[in-house]
Amino acid sequence: MLNYSLVKTLHIVGVFMLISSIVIICYSDSNRFVARVTGNVAMFVILITGLALTVLLHIGFPFWVQVKLAIWLLLTIAVLFVSAKKLRLPTVFYLIVLLVVSGATFLAILKPG
């Protein structure tokens, strides 16, 4: 049986890994390969632990979980595109990512609906 606290901690660590990899991809010319790999691993960890948390909470598949899955998909696509080429406006992209992650955090804390 999975421990809720452990899965939630791994989920949060995955989010930190993702944001760290996005910062490296946006602002560093070196270590981009490591950042891309870290970002991909982070997205996988976030998906698996997020789904596990949904199962552990016994809440089914409410609308806010669907929105968080859409956010996850959006961030995955964004990381793939950004890691493929150098950004012209890395700060704007980083701020947008922070806003999107903040929205996902809001949904996770309040669990509306």
From TrEMBL:
Keywords: Membrane, Transmembrane, Transmembrane helix. The chain crosses the membrane at residues 6-27, 39-61, 67-84, 91-110. It comes from the Bacteria. This is Uncharacterized protein. It comes from Candidatus Moanibacter tarae.
